[in-house]
Amino acid sequence: MDQHIRQSAALVALSPGSGLLGGLLFGAKPPVHHVHWLVVSEKARGKGVGAALMADATSRFVHGPGSIEVVTFGADHPGAVASGARAFYEGLGFTPAEATDPGPEGGSRQIYRRSVR
Q1: Distance, CA of 88 to CA of 29 (rounded, Å)
Q2: Which SUPFAM superfamilies does the UniProt record give (predicted)?
């Protein structure tokens, strides 16, 4: 976290009275950019906070051409539907790509990728 803050690659969404709504850690090694971590508080989900964080990160850090990649739950993972992560990324134009190493709890993971120009 400290490294991302020093590199200006950590973003947060705040709301007066509500506090911290979400956060994102981003890494750029063009032409491939990585969403290392994106979380939105339960009370703020479905209100555009995650999409706003992604849009802000893209405008600040992405200089195409290239791609943005994120690792999320595999289709067979119990958290895939519950978290809404796969649908969220698909709604932002990401497409499912290859499988990757399992998560820390042993569940399947998949890379999602979006091309940028």
Answers
A1: 24
A2: Acyl-CoA N-acyltransferases (Nat)
